[in-house]
Specification:
By secondary structure, the chain is α/β, with parallel strands linked by helices. The chain contains seven helices and twelve strands.
Length: 295
């Protein structure tokens, strides 16, 4: 009778010397003991990444903000209220455009939010130092923004008074108040001025169209450059504008960023902006100057 002998050594180790067998078993133990260490290191790296993403960021992210029709109302109040002189109504909309900024004083963001903004394609990411001074408090930031808005409105009224003199528009006794909540900065000056002129004249400048625009303005009627114009054009398109008035000095930022279906007209003065307004309202605007790569 033959006897069958069995062994605990796996077939792959059959015929190995005792030292070789011990070495193989040691390798198996090392393999299984090493895996938990690798998993632990990997888990720590993931947790560290999560912590970093949750930390406050040193960057500001900007996106298209809300628009407001300067011929209409905000929170039940006329955005441009005029007393002391006759006021005329128009159809259509004149949209001031804005940018929403997060990461400015009082509105912190995390690194995760900044990473998302970087990848979105519809937001802009910038260092905080490019937007506001280092160490500026939320109260200081808000005060500065409100001050710029008030100055912008005052300059718009002054520019319209000068415009009225050369266009024989009576502004004697005119009192103007402007109201928009939660919007600051100087970039709505031109649109305030155009909205006020529209109210003072019997001409239906807008005439049922939706025209957006941006640009600061001074008392002499010069239209100045502003920031975030690519995002503002996106907001204008989103809210139904088919025309956009842009400062000539911003043309280098306009070119290549105009959304489909939006026509941009470059302007350098209040007179040019008003002429463009009338031309668009008349439906004869195809020859108006636009921004090009070479100015």
């Amino acid at each position: 009778m033959s006897t069958l002998h069995t062994t605990d050594v796996p077939p792959s180790q059959a015929g190995q010397s005792p030292d070789e067998s011990r070495h193989a078993r040691g390798g198996v133990r090392a393999f299984f003991h090493g895996k938990p260490r690798k998993y632990f290191v990997g888990l720590c790296a993931v947790l560290l990444g999560v912590v970093i993403l949750c930390l406050p960021s040193a960057y500001v992210m900007e996106m298209p903000g809300p628009t407001a029709n300067v011929l209409g109302k905000d929170e039940g109040k006329e955005i441009i209220s005029v007393q002391g002189v006759p006021v005329h109504k128009d159809t259509g909309k004149l949209l001031l455009v804005t940018v929403n900024a997060s990461g400015v004083p009082g509105y912190p963001v995390t690194n995760a939010q900044i990473a998302y903004a970087w990848l979105s394609g519809h937001m802009t990411v910038m260092p905080r130092e490019a937007i506001f001074p280092v160490g500026q408090s939320a109260e200081e930031y808000e005060h500065e923004s409100d001050k710029e808005m008030t100055t912008s409105q005052d300059d718009a009224v002054a520019a319209v008074r000068n415009f009225a003199k050369s266009h024989h528009i009576d502004t004697d006794g005119m009192k103007v108040t402007m109201h928009v909540d939660d919007i600051g900065g100087p970039s709505a000056g031109m649109m305030y001025a155009l909205g006020l002129i529209d109210k003072l004249t019997p001409v239906k400048e807008v005439n049922g169209t939706v025209i957006a625009g941006t640009g600061s303005i001074n008392a002499d009627g010069k239209v100045g450059s502003i920031g975030g114009i690519d995002l503002k054009m996106l907001g204008a398109k989103r809210d139904g504008a088919t025309w956009f008035l842009a400062p000539e000095s911003n043309c280098d930022e306009v070119e290549g960023h105009v959304p489909g279906g939006l026509r941009v007209v470059k302007v350098a003065t209040l007179d040019e902006a008003y002429d463009a307004l009338v031309t668009i309202g008349n439906g004869t605007a195809q020859s108006l100057p636009s921004c090009s790569a070479k100015q």
